[in-house]
## 1
Amino acid sequence: MSVIEMVREEGIAILTINRANVLNALNTEVLLELKKVLSQIKEDTSIKVVIITGAGEKAFVAGADISEMVKQSVDEGYRYSRLGQEVLALIENLPQPVIAAVNGYALGGGCELAMACDMRIASEKAKFGLPEINLGIIPGFGGTKRLTELVGKAKAMELILTGEMIDAAQAERLGLVNQVVKADKLLETAKTLAQKIASKSQIAVRAAKLAVNKSLYTDIETANACEAGLFGVCFASEDRKEGMMAFLEKRPAKFKN
Ligand code: CAA
C-alpha cells in the first residue's frame, strides 16, 4: 500500500498520509511521494480542491521521521529540510486550494504541513505543536515563518521555544485553525467546505488564492498591482459574465468550472 493514498470524489482529491504505525511521520519516501502526487494534481484541472489528512485515529502527522533524522549528517539534515520546504511550498503554491483535515497530533513537520495548507479544520482530538526544541533542533519545514505569520511573533516564540503542545480549542483561539469539529464529523466538514469552493468559478478561486498568497510576502503596492492584474483576468472569463448576470436576474449562477 502506498504511503500516500489518493481518493477522488468528483472534483475533490483526498490525500491520506499512510504510515499509521509511526503516527504518519514524514520520512524521505513520504516527502518524495507527496511531491510526485502534488506535481500531478497541479496539472489536473479536473481537481478543484485538495484535502490532506492522516491515516488512523491518533495522528495527522507526528513530525519528521526521527528514526531517519537520527542517522543524518549535517549535510543530509540540511537537504532534508530543503526537501520538506520544497514539498510544502508546492502545497502553498498549488493552484487549487488545499484544506488540512487535522485528525490528531500535528507536531513538528506535521504542524508545518498543516500550516502550508490554505485552511485547517481540526478534530477536537487534534493537538498542535513544534516540539523540535526538545530534540535539540528547530523547525525545518518552514514553521518558523508560517507559524509567525499565522499567530504573531510572541505566541510563535512561546510555542517554538517551549516545544509545548496546544489543543484544538487553543489552536482555534490563536487563529491556527479555521474550525474545530467532533472527530466523526471531520472529513464531512472538510468535504462540505471543499464542495462549496468547488462550486465557484475556478478561475476566480485560483486568482483569489494567488492574490492572497502574493500579498503575504510583499509590500502593499506590489500586492495591489498583482490583485488588479488577477481581477482583470477574472473579467475576461465567461464565469464573470454569468456571475454578474445571475445576480441581476436574481437566479443562482451556473459556473462553467
Ligand atoms: N518519527 C518517528 N517515529 C515516530 C514519530 C516521529 N516523529 N512520532 C511517533 N513515532 C513512532 C513512535 O516511535 C512509536 O513507534 P514504536 O511503536 O515503534 O515504538 C509510534 O510512532 C507510536 O508513538 P508513541 O508510542 O510515542 O505514541 P504516544 O501516544 O506515546 O505519543 C506522541 C504520541 C506524543 C505524538 C509521541 O509519539 C511523540 O512525541 N512523537 C514525536 C513528536 C515530535 O517530536 N515531532 C517533531 C519531529 S522533528 C521535526 O518534525 C523536524 C522538522 O520540523 C522538519
## 2
Amino acid sequence: EKGGYPHFMLKEIFEQPNTLFDCIRGRISADGTKVQLSGIEDNASRFINAKRIVLVACGTSWHAGLIGGRLIEELARIPARVEYASEFRYANPVISSDDIVIAISQSGETADTLAAIKLAKERGAFVYGVCNVVGSSIARATDTGTYIHVGPEIGVASTKAFTGQVTVLTMMALAIAQLKGTISPDALRSTAQSICKIPSQIKQTLKLNDKIEQLSRTYTYVHNFLYLGRGYNYPTALEGALKLKEISYIHAEGYPAAEMKHGPIALIDKELPTVFIAPKDELHEKVVSNIQQVKARGGSVIAIVTAGDEIIPSMADHVLEIPSSPECLSPIIASIPLQLLAYHIAVMKGCDVDMPRNLAKSVTVE
Ligand code: F6R
C-alpha cells in the first residue's frame, strides 16, 4: 500500500504531481481564462460584498492560510486576517455577517478549528471550508467549500495536503478577484496557466531527491536549524521548520528573512545551518544580503533558488534549484525540497517518520 516506497511520507511527497493535477482538474478552463469553483460562484454576492475574510486553521493548515490570506488581499483586495483556530475561538473576535471565515483542515476533524467555525457561525459569518476528507465534521459544519482532492494522507506529517491547500486557496483568490474585477484578464490568464504547469514543475523538482539525501548526511546530527524566507515564502520557511521539528526532532525556527537582524542573527555560528527560500522575485537582492550576513558569521547555507540564479550559487554551501514560477506560486514548489530535507534527515536519524512521537494524525481534542 506504500506503492514501493519505504514510508507513506515519501510516497505522498512523490504523489504530488498527480494529487495537484486532481486538485486543479475541472477548476481552470482549458484556455486559462476562467477559474471555476462552485462554492464561490454559488455565493458570488457574498464574496463581492465581503468586508473582510478571516482564515482559521492549525499547524500546517495555518501555514497554508498565511499564504492564502496574502493572496486574497493582494489579488481580490479584501482585507484578510489569518488566525490560529485555538486563539480565535477564545479571543471574543469581532465578527459580523459581512465577514467570510475560511476554515482550512486536511482531516476535517480538528477540534479547535471546529470550535472556531461554530463561533463564527454564531456571530453570523458565512463559513467556507477547505478540507481534504470528504464528509468530515468540518466539511459538514461549513456553509460550503472546496475540497482539495489530494487523496488520503496517511503520514502524520502533512505534505500533499499542504500543497493542495495552497493550490485551492490560490484558485479561490483568483476566482474572487475575477468576480470583483480586481484582476486584469491577462494577469488572470497568465497566473491560471502557471497553476496548470505546477504538476510538471513538481515532477521536475522531485529530481532533487538524491541530492537532498546526500546533503542530509551533513546535517543529521545538528541540534538547531533556521529557515528564512520573505513575502510569500515566509510561511514556506515556517512550514519547512515545522516539518523538520516534527519528524526529526531537531529544533528549527522559521522567520521572515529581514527579521534575522532583530534577534536570531545572534544564534548564527558554524553549528547552525540556515535554509534560505530564495527564488528570484522582487526581494531577491535583499535575501542575497541576508545570505552574506550568515556566511560572514561562519554559518552554513542551504539555498532554494530559481534555476539559473547567478548570484546565490557562489555564496551558498548547498544550492537546490527549482523551476521558475510567479512569486505567489513559488511556495508550492519550494516546499517540495523542504519536505524531502526533513524526510531524509529524519530517516538518517532513525526516526519513525510516518508516526512521529507524541503526534496524532488528527487532533480531535483540545
Ligand atoms: C503538520 C501537521 C499538523 C496539522 C494540524 C492541523 O505536519 O500535520 O500541524 O496540519 O494538526 O490538522 P488539520 O489540517 O487536519 O486540521
